[in-house]
Design a protein that fits this description.
eight-stranded parallel sheet; disordered N terminus; about 35% helix; five-stranded antiparallel sheet; alpha/beta
Length: about 625
Amino acid sequence: MPMKRWTLASAVLALVMAAACASPPESGGEQAREAPAVDTSRRELAEEVPGGIVVDFKDGTSKAEFDAWEAEWGVNLEFNSVEGERTGVTIARGVGSVDEVLARIRQNPAVESAEPLKVYSVPPAEEAVSGLEAPLEEVGKDGYTPNDPDYPKQWNLRMIHMPSAWQQSRGKGVVVAVLDTGVAYEDHDDFKQVPDLEGVKFKTGYDFVNDDAHANDDHGHGTHVAGTIAQATNNGQGVAGVAFEATLMPVKVLNHFGAGTSADIAEAIRFAADNGANVINMSLGGGGYSKVMADAVEYARKKGVTVVAAAGNAGRSRVEFPAAYPGSVAVAAVGPNGTRAPYSSYGRELDIAAPGGDKRQGDAGGILQNTIDPRDVSRSVYAAYQGTSMATPHVAAVAALLYAEGASGPDEVEKALYAGAKRVGGQAWTEEYGHGLLDAEASLKALGGGASRWPSLWWALALLALVLLTMRGRERPGYFNILFRPSFLVPLVLATVGVFFARSWFGGASGVAGDVVDAAYLPIPDWQRIIFGRGKMANPLFYSSLIPLLLSFLAIKFRGLRPAIGGLALGFAGFLAYAAWSKAPALAWMPFTFLAVPWLVVNTFICLFIARALLRKESAV
């Protein structure tokens, strides 16, 4: 009889699994003119501005207040920009003893952070060499095909399956802020809008370099990046963009040398988050860690903004900032053959890879977009660039597609991006590619199919059937009695899908209330993102049986808690089982990435053992 029960249970489990879970996603106009040689490499700049400091005061701190403290500190602070009264970001230059001054400033309770002023810039580019395979010209032919004459040269869009993705979403109604050298989006003084951005929607941005409202490009980098995101498409001219119905917000944070300060970038992040941006693209890096910038990224994320940044072009195993901050999506670059470009940085903080180009075979291997001639800002050119700067806007634009399709926030966007990414070498995560190579079509399917949420519940219900079928008759609670018992069902749902409507009903909450809403929205194992902050890898203590195991000790004394803790344990089992099956998470503290799946499987069985013990009829109240 026991053998028959296990055989029957296995058969039912197999049928439920087949029905409940789908397989995880696999993954005429102006002619192009010869572009001038554009130096996109980083200038030889120190990571810290000599004698420069940045102080971030708590919101609401007035100029009169910090003016009164300046004599004690021995420094003259000024708001970094007109946004300073709102953001509290101030700077000082020509400081004699930076360390001593900062030590005094940090003692003031009105100061959130104080540090040396740092420099960030357009990532350095790799020199071209020979020996690259030919571009993938035939990938993703079927689907929507724009009439832009140079679209056939955009191997990058076909690599991420844009023709199919465009049939579902084009980013309408989503605002993407481009924090860069500016964008050639308007005719103003000597600046001219590039022709292939005509008709694109723009939202008012800001120039933090020159402190005015005209965020025009005097370098070329920012316009190129903006084109990948939302170049005018199907207009019979030039090339196409990924999310061509999205709205661009030009925000200038880098000067005509391609360099900018941590103060400007931090304020720009807050500006974009406060002025309606859904996605922030930062194709810039270097400069080392800045708490002012890290706080700004965290601020944007809590406001529901997805922050995407370039991993860097140093070709080493270290992701640069701001991509390495916990709240941002770090992007590496691949060439036309789908392998990591030699210039692309990588490492434990990496999230995903996308087409960034590899010009070892010439311009055909680069990312082609309309931009400006940096020697004449009024002249438009079509230029092929390479770099993680070029990879990053692909990811930002696909995030815009996901928001347009109903994604509710950064967590849901990232889950869909990573679930849809094409795995490299069959691994869920690697230091070179993160969760894999960006796939717009698969990510949209992952979002639409609820791949990041509902399968955990189906797994939990299937495992419930397994638990009940393996009990002897006199031990087994009634199937429907247990399913419709709120004390059992509510913890199971909280552990698998969370209160999925929380953000749509209470999304405007902020502070502690906002954190509560965010936590309720997430399945309980993902509360680690609220408690510890969003990291690049999942916390293995939450992705384990630890919480049900600790709570099960309460059930020894308080028998009335057994159904609730049993439901929680079964919910954790479903969540962990799906995570193991989909090979989705990368777990922190693991010496080898392949240990993540065994960890999840073992803890799934422990949760099942706990649930079975607590649901046995003779153990119930």
